[in-house]
Predict the 3D structure of the following.
Amino acid sequence: MNTFWFIRSARLRWLLAGIVIGGALIVFVLPIAVAVLWSLVDPEVGWFPPDVLPSSLSLANWRALLSVPELADAFVTSFAIAVLVTLLCAALGLPTGFAIGRRQLKLRRLLELLVLTPLMLPSVVLATGLGSVFIRLGLAQTIPGVVLAQTVVVLPYMIRIVAATLGGVPQDVIDAARNLGAAPLALTRHILVPMIAPGLFAGALLAFIGSLEEFILTFVVGMPTIQTLPILLWAYLGGRSSYLTYAAVVSLTLLVPTLIMLFVVERVLKQEYLAAGFGKA
Amino acid sequence: MTAETHAAIQVPRRPRRRRSEIWTDLVLLAPGCGFLLVAMAVPVVQLLLASIGLFGLGGRSRLTLDNYAQVFGDSLLRGGFFFSLRIALATMVVSVVVATLLTALLQIDFPGRRLVSVLYKIPLVVPSLVAAFLVLTMIGPGGMAARLLAPWQVQWPSFVHDPSGVGVVIVLLWHNIPVTVLIVSAVAAAIPRDLVDAARNLGASPWRVFRHVIGPLCAPGISAAALLVFIDAFGTYAIPSLIGPAYPRAISVMMTTEFLQHANWGLASALGVILIATTTALLVLYYRLLTRLREQAAA
């Protein structure tokens, strides 16, 4: 369904294009441009209504990301937790993803449902439940507690991507390599790793971003000791309005890894290796 | 390669699975599925028990329904429940209607269509707190809209902390409409072009094609998207805690306050159980509806 039959006039199409593109720019692009402006506001001068543009710009707020202790600490904590969550997800998700993706399981449907449940469960409920369990176990307000809590909502993505990636490797290719005399090590190095590396990389990146952006579980389990960037953002937005410039810096920092991921996924995950595997290339 | 040929090769080779195979499966599944099972079952069971007064932290353990009685007896708590319900319903209805219209719009071949179909995906990758910030810089007090309208002496309405919750719904919509558009366009793209052409050839008007061909084929996908939006909006915490009104407060906000500030585990757990119960009831209802529709279609 590429064309509709009832708009034939070229002029009407241009009018429509103008309205839709203009609307999309205002709704989706302008807010990000305004956030960039907020992050560049000179703290000495400020940006007060009714000025539509700030009168002077500076990089002071970006320098604050590394120099103001509160921001720098949250920055380091966020990225450290994200690395730990990614490693834990890889350790837990790789074997399970392999089993779901490649082995013949009787209860596959049930297992897939189990993997999806953390995403359907309201996360505030999961957060409060885990929070109360962690208080008993002494894990509340600790880095390991936050890492475990975030893993619950990030691991499902990891398992699904690993399962899809490993499941997508055609058995023919493995059999052919074996037939041609590839030793298990050579098979892994020259066939399997190049085929699954992009998918696994995407899974790790997704886990990293999921952890970096996670708010409610970190908030309930880690309050008030563990401060990550989203928790600072929440504090800046709730009442402390003089920190709107810092909120902009934190917001944009959280968006950067995501933009990198979009770029990487676009480039790497073209699934060309699958076509090559079937001899179409 | 189809599933049948795969099975045809596999079945004669391996009629019965050996016990060691099952052990291998279990060892492989234990880290991921085992972790998720424990990490979900323990908190949920803990909530269920605490909500009826058993094994709470501190206090004595005795079976009681006081917490539930309090939720439905206290007008503050009851109001919060209905506030969450209202917000979720409003977000769901507006999301589905706007997303369906936008999907239809994106089917028209106008110049710049590809640009728009990239731009609308931006909110998909924006975390909800950042979405709240972005929307606030536009429509919040002292935001862009208010600044642009100021020269004309137009008073911009306050969308922050308004008791109707319009501000909360706007942020939720900014986040959820693109998700819905994505699902609905995927469903619409799966409709074979031939079907629409055949109906047109046979003399059906565009409206009849939509009513009898496109609509029914899109319905399951659209209703699944609606369900996802509802569940997300009903349980959301970050957005109503930031820009929601002081009264009524969303059920998730009340729950977190009872847990973190008042240390009232029983009440927090009862609110949590009500949240899960509402979500689960909707899921069950949806699957029953879908099954019935399928049966009707088959009959």
